[in-house]
Design goal:
Distance between the termini: 38 Å
CATH topology of the largest domain: TIM Barrel
Strand content: 15-25%
Structural class: alpha/beta
CATH superfamily of the largest domain: Metal-dependent hydrolases
Shape: globular
Length: about 475
């Protein structure tokens, strides 16, 4: 006897989308069959007629907080919002802090997730400023323990202040990190901006009286993204290192990702659904700093280009760069030097991608699954355990109701006290979420519990690290 059968929905599998039944037992997908196939009896039958049945979303870029970030919400509320939005796996960060190594960072991440996750989870260690050779040489041990993805910043992002720790990695150390990443079958995530250009832009903005937050795109500029992406891909080419550019924000970034991939390099690009849906013009609104995530929003043309790059596959994933802040914290600061970054959109990512991609731009359901779950699963070493509706895969499933067509309200969302998505027109939305065979959200009602989530050990395929899959 099976545990659950989902019957009659349009199911998106690795081989395509069609009306199928999905059969689940012991937390995994037992079979995917034509509707009404005989020999499949289940304890629970869920009618998904008229629905879109997709793999649970995989959020590849979320900062849920830690001991040095008390204003951030933590695993319990972030992962709860995630499952309401159809996301079943969250990749957090393990951030190195001064005086400690990467192993300490991983221990901190494990402690904050222990017994708190509604979703499955994993982490990417982030190198601190001026990482030592000892830190860099911990990469092989971490990869062996199932943590094969790492992150660096090419800029300190903001002028020196107590608010933000400098995590810039210089290009000398970056070369050493790339060598270890490449030789151990890992992948390197890069927040890529030109540090000298960014800080010159801060100085110029202050001198010219353009220090209000709405000048952010002039400080964290498209030129900085352009120059830095090219510099990083050149070093990656020399070191044979696979690269994942986080939060691509401009046409120039898209173009460099496309160029590198066309040349055969294992380069992957991510954008954020808020980057693709809003523009620097929104900064000019009252309290327009609420839209800000570093580096910055660009022009409307960049947003359109980002959606197109997701549709055509130039960019591989859509993420959030989640930092969960309160409204008070988000509007507290007013200048380009101190505005709080981050985006509390982990719940809206899947639904907005469906609305803007599938409904508004004709994205195929297969490509929708790629950008929201399958590609991050492949790139970060979880596929086909995650990101696929196929026999043997974890039964992580989101059920989308395409008939929902209205504006989002604050009551629809489950984290923090504000959202930039309130009032946004949606066409289709996740209503039911299943994690490893357990219905954790049923037609908008929470059934899951903190502690449902499990840590995921990962190993990245050599296909991903050797060529632009």
């Amino acid at each position: 006897m099976l545990d659950i059968t989902l019957s009659g929905g349009t199911v998106v599998t690795p081989s395509g989308a069609r009306v199928m039944d999905v059969h689940i037992t012991d937390g995994v997908i037992a079979a995917v069959t034509l509707p009404g196939a005989e020999g499949f009896e289940a304890v629970q039958n869920i009618d998904t007629t008229g629905m879109i049945v997709v793999p649970g979303g995989v959020e590849s870029h979320a900062h849920i907080g830690g001991p040095r970030q008390p204003e951030r919400s933590g695993a319990e509320p972030v992962s709860k919002a995630a499952i309401f939005g159809g996301t079943t796996t969250v990749l957090d960060f393990a951030t190195q802090v001064p005086g400690h190594d990467l192993l300490h960072a991983v221990d901190e991440a494990a402690e904050r997730w222990k017994g708190q996750g509604y979703t499955d989870y994993a982490y990417h260690p982030i190198f601190g400023h001026r990482a030592s050779e000892t830190d860099i040489n911990q990469i092989p041990e971490l990869v062996q323990s199932g943590i094969p993805s790492f992150k660096i910043f090419t800029t300190s992002i903001r002028p020196p202040s107590p608010q933000m720790e400098d995590r810039q990695t210089d290009f000398g150390r970056l070369g050493s990190i790339m060598e270890q990443v490449a030789s151990n079958g890992a992948i390197l995530m890069v927040h890529s901006e030109d540090d000298e250009m960014v800080h010159y832009n801060y100085e110029r903005a202050e001198a010219e009286g353009n220090y209000e937050w709405w000048h952010m795109n002039e400080v964290h500029s498209r030129e900085s993204e352009d120059v830095s992406f090219r510099r990083v891909t050149r070093l990656a080419e020399l070191k044979s290192c696979p690269i994942y550019f986080v939060h691509v924000s401009a046409i120039e970034g898209i173009q460099e990702v496309a160029r590198a991939r066309k040349s055969g390099m294992p380069v992957y690009g991510e954008t954020l659904h808020n980057y693709a849906s809003f523009s620097a013009a929104n900064y000019r609104e009252e309290n327009g700093m609420k839209y800000h995530t570093y580096p910055s929003l660009k022009d409307e043309a960049d947003g359109q280009a980002l959606w197109q790059a997701l549709v055509d596959g130039t960019l591989s994933t859509v993420a959030t760069d989640l930092v969960a802040t309160t409204w008070e914290e988000k509007i507290r600061f007013k200048t380009v030097a101190d505005v709080t970054g981050g985006h509390n959109g982990i719940e809206t990512r899947v639904g907005i991608a469906y609305t803007e991609g599938v409904e508004n731009r004709g994205m195929s359901l297969e490509q929708f699954v790629n950008i929201t779950s399958a590609n991050p699963s492949r790139i970060f070493g979880m596929y086909p355990q995650k990101g696929a509706i196929a026999p043997g895969s974890d039964a992580d499933i989101a059920i989308i109701d395409p008939s929902i067509k209205r504006k989002l309200t604050a009551d629809d969302l489950h984290m923090n006290d504000y959202s930039i998505w309130e009032g946004f027109d949606i066409a289709g939305w996740p209503i039911t979420t299943i994690l490893r065979g357990k219905v954790v959200v049923d037609n908008g009602q929470l059934l899951g519990s903190p502690g449902d989530g499990q840590f995921l050990k990962r190993a990245i395929s050599s296909d991903i690290t050797s060529r632009p899959v």
